[in-house]
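Structure ticket #2291
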Amino acid sequence: MAQILILGAGRVARPCVQYLLNNTQHMVTVVDISEDNLKRATAGHPRSQIIVGNAADETEHFLEKLKPDIVINLLPAQFMPPVAKKCIQHGINYVDPSYIKEEMRSLDAAAKEKGVLLLCELGLDPGIDHMSAVKTIRSIHDQGGLVESFWSCCGALPSLCDNNNPFGYKLSWSPEALIGASKRTARFLKNGKIVVLPDGETYKHPSLVEVEGLGCFEEYANADSIPYIDLYGIKEAKEVYRGTFRYPGWCELIAKMNQLGLFETTEMDLKGLTYRGFMAQVLDTDKENVEEKLCSVLGRETFSTLFLKLKWLGLLSDEKIPFATGSPRSVTASLFHKKLVFSKGEKDLVVMEHRYVASFPKENIKKLITSTLVCTGSVDEDTAIAKTTGIPPAIGAMLILNGSVKAKGVHAPVLPEIYEPSLKLLEKEGITFTERETIIGD
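Resolution: structure written out below.
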C-alpha cells in the first residue's frame, strides 16, 4: 500500500480523492486549512486521513512526517514550484494540474538527476486538451498526413439551463484567477505569422462559434499558443490557436471593465467607501453623477445591456466595501464572489473542442477533424470543472505508482505512456470526445 499525499482540498479535490480511494488500494492523506473541505473530499473513507494544516507553508514537515510515495499538489499555482523543489529533495514523484512556467521548467535537470518525475499540466485545460490533441495529431501523422491548422477552445460555464444571470458566467474557480486572465497577453499563429494581443486586447477580437448540439458561443484567444507548436509536434502548421469559450456578450463586458480600470492592482484607501463611492473615484466624478459619467466613458445609454450588467453587479450600490484598503481588482473580485455564484441544485458545463485541418498528400485529400468534449456536473455533488480537473491528476498518480510511466524530469502529459491509458480511464468516467471527419476542399 502506497502513501499518496494531496495538498489542498479546494474546489477540485473531491473527485481526485474519491477516484484514488475507489480505484486503488493506496492510503490517501489530504492536507488543507479547512476541516470542512477535508471532510467533504474524503467522506470518512477508511483509507483516508485528513490533516488540518497549512499545506503550502508546512510542506517540508508533511514530507518528512508522512514519507509519501507521491504528492498531488492542488494548491494555487504560485505554490507549484516550491512544493516541487521539496519533492525533488526528498526523491518523491509529483503531479499537478497547473501550467509549466519557467521556474518549474528549470527543475528538469535536478529532477532527472534525482530520478523524480514532475508531471504537470494534468487537469482539464491544460491536461485533457493536451492528451486528446497529441493522440489525434499522432494519428494524422501516422497516416502520412500534415496538420495545416490546429484550433482549440475550452470553456467552464453555467449549464444552458442555469445560465440565468446577466453576466452569463458563474464561478467554478477563483475570481482572482478569472480577473488575472482578463489582463493576459495572447499570442497565436495565423497564416504562418505570430499575432500578439497584449494586456487583455484579446477581448476586442472575439468571434462567434457554433458547437454542434449546444449552439453559439463567443470565443477569444487565450494566453500563448506558440509553445504548442513544439509541444504537439506540428511545425508544419500555418495556424495554431487556443481560445476560451464564453456565452455571447462576455468579451465586450470584460473589454469595457478593463477600460474602466476595474482590474488594476494599485492599492487605494477604501475606508468607509461604498461601491458607488469607489466608482466615483474611478471615474473622477461626484457620487451624484456616477451614472452619467459611466455612460459617457462606456459610450452607452442607461438602458444599454452593458450599463445594466455593471449596475446588476453592484458597482453603483450604496453598500459599503467590506475592507479598508485594496485595489480595483480586489473590489471587483469581492462583487464577483457575491454575484457570480452557483445556487443549490444548479449545474455547470465544460465544453472543449479541437478542430484540425489535415492534408493527406498521398490520397490528395484534406479533412476537417472535429473533437468535442461536453461534460456536465452539479454543485450539489461534483461540478464538471472539478471532475475534469481533479480526476486527471489522480489517474496520473495511479499510473506512476503502478510503474506504467517511466519518464523522469518535468513533463506535460504528451507522452504515449501517459495519454493513452489516461484517455481510456477518463472514458470510463464519462469524460470522452466525440469525433467527426469531413472532406473539405482547398
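Closing remark: Residues 253-339 form a domain with the Domain 3, Saccharopine reductase fold (CATH 1.10.1870).
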